[in-house]
């Protein structure tokens, strides 16, 4: 059957070879095993269910969280001469009934539905009557409550369907999954370890950059001047930011599209099309934009503010360079952005365990902005992908010029200060003690009597805080939890204090930092 799969790849899609992971996923699926495929964005997940859908008897049901996407998928299948449809709330009742009738008559090889469709009695009674080849969950991480985009309606599908009919097997596909999410999907879909195909997440054509301490609007203006005719996405945190950035860019004569949840469905569709059809070169949007958008020539993805976790960041940034050409992913970092993310977690309806987990994820995102190891490697390690042996050579950390210098002594000073303060305070107050500040709190806790008080009197508090963040990012200090980010020493820190471990850093010393380009 794999030969037939290769023929379809060539004859229907016009591709000579499978991409990494595709063949393996398809072969598990053709053996009717429950299968989970994890591939980076642009890796070619659609083919993994479409080819088996063409080879196996019956109708394949594809569950997708995005209604806006279904029409595109169906249109592209129809162009290939494949019978497919979608049934969702964008259709009139009459259209829905017509499609259900054709589904009952087994006229489709593929039917795309949103998870909520499984709550409709008519849909369930229809699928009860037909031969189903398999059920595929696109964006399968939505199934897991540990995923960053949990949809409760996704989770109940398997049990709902089991009450109605028998499905030969199921498959899940996703571009983002931490090990706990993978485990969760496996349990829910009954996927054995052998049937998890994970191609790794590395995206060799992407160059990641963190930009700190610069005026963001000026950075954007300068960047766009240098990349005038390139297609790119700017992600902002709020609708207000989206409006402000897009109006500035429009004033400067750029053709801009914008997208956020405050616009009507029709307006959003219009803006999206303007971007996809190249009428607009820049898309300014909140994270409401982009899931499943297949625009291959996006040359940069610029984040105006800190995303809430690495999963979201990697997914959003990964919309750059789907065609494999070199592209940039730039994150503009400022410490203030952390507050908004904390606020969003705090006022959300999540339970305490989930909130704590979100704070932990936020901390990893913050660490990304302070680490000096390869940025791509940092994110891959986060996903437990250790395939990239050396630095990517392209990211802002790999590219930073300058020798590595021994900062062990400075680190020892910070670490012993944290220890003497009882490991009960955050980076701000620790920096004040090291600076020798006369802050009220310092008096209150009598920290001016510590031997570490004023050790960095020549440096600014900001430079000291930056260095502390670096020590957190590299795992010498733990921050408890972002809600009350108190600094604590890790095992690694003990080794540094005992002189058993040295810290080499690509950056300048705390004293030199203020005049250096550390922040750029
Ligand atoms: P994903 O869903 O993983 O983000 P898609 O399924 O949308 O990715 O595929 C991304 C692009 O790669 C599409 O334009 C698709 O036609 C192309 N593609 C998929 N498989 C192959 C292949 N084996 N050879 C060449 N191009 C492919």
Automatic annotation (TrEMBL):
A GO CC term assigned to this protein in UniProt: cytoplasm
Annotated GO biological process: DNA recombination; DNA repair; DNA replication; SOS response
Domain of life of the organism encoding this protein: Bacteria
Reactions catalysed, as given in the entry: Couples ATP hydrolysis with the unwinding of duplex DNA by translocating in the 3'-5' direction
A GO molecular function held by the record: DNA binding
Keyword set includes DNA-binding: yes
Protein name per its UniProtKB record: DNA helicase RecQ
Species this protein is from: Paraliobacillus ryukyuensis
């Amino acid at each position: 059957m794999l030969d037939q799969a290769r023929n379809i790849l060539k004859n229907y899609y016009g591709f000579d070879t499978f991409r990494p992971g595709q063949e393996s996923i398809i072969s598990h699926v053709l053996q009717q095993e429950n299968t989970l495929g994890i591939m980076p964005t642009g890796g070619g997940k659609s083919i993994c269910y479409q080819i088996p859908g063409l080879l196996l008897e019956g109708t394949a049901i594809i569950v997708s969280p995005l209604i806006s996407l279904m029409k595109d998928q169906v249109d592209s299948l129809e162009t290939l001469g494949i019978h497919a449809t979608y049934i969702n709330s964008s259709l009139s009742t009459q259209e829905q009934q017509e499609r259900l009738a054709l589904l009952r008559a087994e006229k489709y090889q593929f039917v795309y539905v949103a998870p909520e469709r499984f709550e409709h009695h008519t849909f369930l009674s229809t699928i009860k009557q037909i031969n189903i080849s398999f059920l595929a969950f696109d964006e399968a991480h939505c199934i897991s409550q540990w995923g960053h985009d949990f949809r409760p309606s996704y989770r109940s599908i398997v049990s709902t369907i089991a009450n109605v009919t028998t499905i030969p097997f199921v498959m899940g596909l996703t571009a983002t999954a931490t090990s706990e999410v993978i485990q969760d999907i496996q349990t829910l879909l009954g996927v054995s370890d052998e049937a998890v195909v994970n191609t790794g997440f590395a995206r060799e054509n992407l160059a990641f950059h963190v930009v700190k301490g610069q005026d963001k609007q000026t950075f954007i203006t300068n960047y766009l001047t240098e990349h005038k005719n390139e297609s790119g996405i700017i992600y902002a945190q709020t609708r207000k930011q989206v409006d402000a950035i897009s109006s500035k860019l429009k004033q400067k004569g750029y053709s801009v599209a914008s997208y956020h949840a405050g616009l009507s469905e029709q307006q959003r569709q219009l803006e999206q099309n303007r971007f996809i059809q190249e009428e607009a070169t820049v898309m300014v949007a909140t994270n409401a934009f982009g899931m499943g958008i297949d625009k291959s020539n996006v040359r940069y993805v610029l984040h105006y503010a800190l995303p809430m976790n690495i999963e979201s960041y990697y997914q959003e940034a990964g919309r750059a360079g789907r065609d494999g050409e070199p592209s940039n992913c730039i994150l503009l970092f400022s410490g203030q952005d952390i507050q908004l993310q904390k606020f969003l977690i705090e006022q959300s309806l999540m339970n305490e365990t989930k909130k704590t987990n979100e704070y932990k994820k936020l901390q990893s995102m913050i660490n990304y902005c302070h680490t000096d190891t390869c940025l791509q490697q940092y994110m891959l390690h986060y996903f437990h992908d250790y395939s990239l042996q050396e630095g990517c050579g392209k990211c802002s950390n790999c590219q930073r010029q300058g020798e590595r210098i021994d900062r062990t002594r400075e680190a020892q000073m910070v670490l012993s200060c944290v220890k003497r303060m009882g490991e009960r305070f955050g980076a701000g107050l620790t920096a004040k003690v090291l600076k020798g500040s006369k802050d009220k709190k310092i008096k209150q806790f009598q920290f001016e009597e510590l031997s570490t008080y004023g050790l960095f009197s020549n440096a600014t508090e900001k430079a000291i805080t930056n260095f502390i963040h670096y020590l957190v990012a590299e795992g010498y200090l733990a921050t408890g939890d972002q809600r009350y980010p108190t600094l604590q020493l890790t095992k690694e820190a003990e080794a540094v204090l005992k002189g058993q471990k040295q810290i080499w850093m690509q950056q300048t010393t705390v004293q030199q930092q203020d005049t250096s380009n550390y922040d750029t």
